[in-house]
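User: Fold both of these, please.

Assistant: Here is the first one.
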Amino acid sequence: QVSRTVLTEAAARYPLHVVEITAPPDVLARRLAARGRDDAVAVAARLARTVKLPEGMPRDTIMNDGTIEQGGRKLVAILNRIAAAALPA
């Protein structure tokens, strides 16, 4: 896991492929509230915060709005595809 704010610097040094894991705002709000670490104002501030991914960077997005198992299967499939593409022909 890495902050989106350092992706451009990291991409200048290393081959990089971003796997962005996100969920719809209502799902994120419920999950943040269930953690109990932030009050409603802090949750709203987190949901309003946006950091765009750099253009042209290889990426996949997982819409993590299902179960942990479903999200995990999506992530494993993406990582397997990326690994297979990196193998020499």
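And the second sequence with its predicted structure:
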Amino acid sequence: MNPEISLREHQKNAVAHIIYGGNTLLAHEVGAGKTFEMVAAAMESKRLGLCSKPLFAVPNHLTEQWASEFLRLYPSANILVAKKKDFEPANRKKFCA
């Protein structure tokens, strides 16, 4: 995790709740840090061996924003992000392969 970023207390609690609670709804208001909570929970779950390939399904117009936020929190993470051209019929099979 990026040492220049420290999660707020409610974000740390949300990450713990996601990891240990199983089923979690993050219903914070806009700007409260839900993206960082989900990213941190996914990476911690992977580190703990609870999952191997976390998947986030986000609206098409947010994929690149999510990728930049993900890499801001975990700069050395190896992630696969669908771009607009990957949704074209000719490129779907190649992307999913």
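The chain has a mean pLDDT of 92.
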